[in-house]
Each structure stands twice: as C-alpha cells, then as structure tokens.
Design brief:
- This protein has two helices and 17 strands.
- With about 260 residues, it is mainly beta.
- Strands 1, 3, 4, 6, 11, 12, 13, 14, 15 and 17 form a ten-stranded mixed sheet that branches. The chain has a seven-stranded antiparallel sheet with strand order 2-5-16-7-8-9-10, with no helix packed on it.
C-alpha cells in the first residue's frame, strides 16, 4: 500500500510539473510553430483580425457629393454632409403602405461584398440586395433580400425578404431555407447580446457578404445573421442594391462610405 501511495504521489507530482510547463509555454508562446498564448491573453492562431476600414479590392459607389449612379424619389432622398439622406416629415410623408427605395444603377451584383455606414433616428430602414423592381406596384419599389435596420434595434442585423418569404434569419441565427421550410441550424449569440453591439442614433458599420447561396450580415464587427438559401424557386442569385425608406411616421436615415466588391 505504501508503495502504491508513493507511486500515486509521484504521478501526481509529474502531472503538476507537466501542467506548469504547459502553462508557462502558453503564457510565453510555444517554441514550436509560434503557437501558444501571448502575454495579455488570446491564442496565437496566425489569423489576423480585419480592420474595419479594410477596403482592399472594393470600389466606392457613392462619391459623397452627388447621387450619380443612384435613382430614387428626390422628394425624399438627397446628399448632405457627405452622406445619402432619406427623410420624410409631417409635411411630406411617404405614400401610405408603400416603402420607397434609392436604387443603385451601376450594377446588379451576384457574388459580392458591400461595406457601408448608416445612422437612423426613427422607425425602419434596410439595405436591399439581389433585389428586383416591381413597377406594377409602384416606381422605386423593390423586393428581395434585406439587411434590416430599425431605430429600436428590434430587427437590426436580421435577414428579411421584402415582399417575399419574410423573416429568413433573426439576429443571432444561422438558418437553412428549403422549399416551404425555414430551420435554425445554429445559434450564433443571443439577439440581446448582439443588440448591445449596435449604436443608437450613431454611425454603425454594416458588412454584407453574398457568395453563392450563402448570405452573411456583419454589424460593427459582429456576425448578426447567416442564411443558406437552398430554395431554388425562392432565392435570388443576383440583383439590385438599394436603401429603404419605410412608410409610417417621419424618419431620417443616412448612409455613407459605401464600398462594393464583386467576387
């Protein structure tokens, strides 16, 4: 028994020594391949964070001065202080039950990345992509995928399909869409946790990635929603980009630093 106890103590001591060595290597950085945990925490993985203003390969599609390349109802859209502004007032409300859009006419991208900043002071807006016009409904009316934005941040970050299949992924969800069915395949983070990353009545950075049938929304560096659209009849693989002004109470939304990269 004494011998077994001595062996057990020796094994325990060896385990403690090994643990101490591993911990020290993790703090100082492993000598093998540069792996390990650097001082201050965080694993060295060789994966570098992307800077928020990294626009390598992107083209600016708004010059900050005019609406050249854009098309919409100029009663509601203008350029001011380097930003596209959409605004309705009590004296000039939007037509009832008819959202209006500012449409980018420069291209109808399929696979792309879009980066921009937005600020909103009331109600609801959104960034349309892979969208189509509905002239039979009204001029400057779009249907299609939308990165949703609202002042209360109830829906901001989600993927909604305007005049289509409705909610495709709520904030914090990764979903798969098949004919007649929507399923959550993973929970990214809680919607309330992600809501805390959204700035109220201030500028936010939105990054949309559309690659094949996979659609990704990133807001202020946080993954908000992702959709795999396996519905051939319902999905769109290319189309228009646009900004929404929502019918209802007076509102103001602003967009600036708008950059597009075709993939």
């Amino acid at each position: 028994m004494k011998r077994l106890a001595a062996i057990s103590v020796a094994l325990f001591a060896a385990a403690l020594f090994t643990f101490a060595v591993i911990a020290q290597q993790a703090q100082q950085g492993s000598p093998q391949g540069g792996q390990g945990r650097p001082p201050g925490g965080g694993m060295r993985t060789g994966i570098e964070p992307m800077a928020a203003d990294d626009r390598t390969g992107f083209t600016q599609i708004f010059d900050g001065k005019t609406l050249k390349g854009w098309d919409g109802n100029l009663d509601f859209w203008r350029v001011e202080n380097g930003a596209i502004v959409g605004e309705s007032t009590p004296e000039k409300p939007l037509p009832d039950r008819l959202n209006t859009f500012l449409i980018y006419r420069g291209s109808q991208p399929g696979d792309f990345e879009l980066k921009l900043e937005y600020r909103i002071n009331s109600t609801n807006s959104g960034v349309q992509y892979r969208s189509a016009e509905l002239p039979e409904v009204g001029k400057w009316v779009l249907k299609g995928y939308q990165a949703d934005i609202d002042f209360a941040n109830q829906y901001t970050g989600q993927l909604y399909e305007e005049r289509g299949r409705g909610f495709l992924a709520m904030r914090g969800q990764a979903t798969q869409i098949t004919p007649g069915k929507k399923q959550v395949i993973a929970n990214l983070r809680s919607g309330d946790d992600l809501k805390a990353a959204i700035k109220n009545n201030d500028w936010n950075t939105l990054h949309i990635i559309a690659r094949g049938n996979r659609l990704t929304h990133i807001l202020n560096g946080h993954l908000m929603a992702e959709v795999i659209d396996d519905d051939p009849a319902g999905r769109a693989m290319g189309g228009l980009i646009g900004f929404q002004m929502h019918t209802g109470p007076p509102m103001k939304v602003e967009y600036k630093n708008i950059w597009l990269k075709h993939l």
